[in-house]
Amino acid sequence: MGVRINPDQVHSREDLIKQLERLFAAGGWSFDRLANAAGLSSATIHSLIDGKTNIPRKKTLEKFVEACGEDPEPWLAALARIYQLAKPHTAQTRSRQSRAFWREFSKPNLTVVVGLHQLGRWEPSGLIGVGCAFALSELQQYFVRIGAPSPVITYGDRIKGAERRHPLILIGGPDSNGITDEVMQRLSSSLSLGFSRRSPHDVSLHDSQTDQIYAPELQPRGDEGTDYGLVVKTKNPFNPQVPVLVIAGSFGYGSWAAARHLTEATDEFAPLYASFECLLGTEVVDRTPQAINILALRKLDQAMTDDPLREDARYSDRRQAEVSHFSQAQGVARIRALIAGAGHEEKPPGS
């Protein structure tokens, strides 16, 4: 397999240099040949590759990657992230950015939905995974620090119909949190990151842009290894006037890591506050997520969820089938009424 080139993995000047080196090598370029193709000097190309340039200018980077046959947009987005993180951030600046990110969720009806595992007679009330419990704790403590209202907390199998229209924060993957499953299915056509679901309990994550699968690897005792987390912030598909934030891991460590990173490094998401998707990886040591790395961070097109009547194809198909079944039931009922000479039409079954 060749060396992976992915501008979504650029979050620092060092990351950018590494990716440009790979791009240069993959094309079999010489400095002079690429300079001619890009309309830049050989010295500029050399500086970009060996890191002598601090942070390249937008136009320089655009010419470089276009000459290499790349779409410049993801690379310019990566450059924007680097510039954002390179700015000196005072505690006051970070506080303003954090408040800007969470302002949409600072509502009295904010509802946090936590995944719940049902174990039947062993624990009729259900159990919350430890990782999801710590993710919830991270959020609650953070809300206290920034002075946000305390949210309503409920479980994935107990949320009422109208509550789906509230501003939502969903903790836990689709296996434990049914609302995460509902939301991710409705957003699937606008996302490039999601759960693979190759089998009923497959918890790996899939990047459809690179077609890469991210499967967690934990030791048999579950106390060490690697886990992955997914963060999606966009419009609530049940009510596009309010936001939804999905914090879901392959296992609980991934959910915990995602919540921690959201609260500790909110400024990393500053360029994409409105709507984004993010894939994170974390090392697990002693049953605790340690170093957290952003593997992909992409802006989402909010227009995909602007129309409250828009439905995913699978839901449209399901409704069409239900309508067809209902029409057939009505026809059967009419025939029965005529045969029986009842003089009125029976109601279709289940009405």
pLDDT averaged over residues = 80
Uncertain runs with pLDDT below 50, 5 residues or more? 304-327, 342-351
Structural class: alpha/beta
* Shape descriptor: elongated
**Major sheet, described briefly?**
8 strands, mixed
GO molecular function: DNA binding
InterPro entries: Cro/C1-type_HTH (IPR001387), Lambda_DNA-bd_dom_sf (IPR010982)
Organism: Streptomyces marianii
Protein name: Helix-turn-helix transcriptional regulator
Structural commentary:
It holds the Pfam family HTH_31. One of its GO terms (molecular function) is DNA binding. It comes from Streptomyces marianii. This is Helix-turn-helix transcriptional regulator. InterPro entries: Cro/C1-type_HTH (IPR001387), Lambda_DNA-bd_dom_sf (IPR010982). This protein is of the alpha/beta class. It has three domains: 7-86, 434 Repressor (Amino-terminal Domain); 91-305, Chitobiase/beta-hexosaminidase domain 2-like (Chitobiase, domain 2); 313-351. It contains ten helices and eleven strands. The strands form two sheets. Strands 1, 2, 3, 7, 8, 9, 10 and 11 form an eight-stranded mixed β-sheet that branches. A three-stranded antiparallel β-sheet has the order 4-5-6, with no helix packed on it. Helix 2 packs across helix 4 (58-67), helix 4 runs antiparallel to helix 5 and helix 7 (130-146) runs parallel beside helix 9 (252-264). It is elongated, with a radius of gyration of 25 Å. It starts with 12 loop residues before the first helix and ends in an 11-residue tail after the last helix.
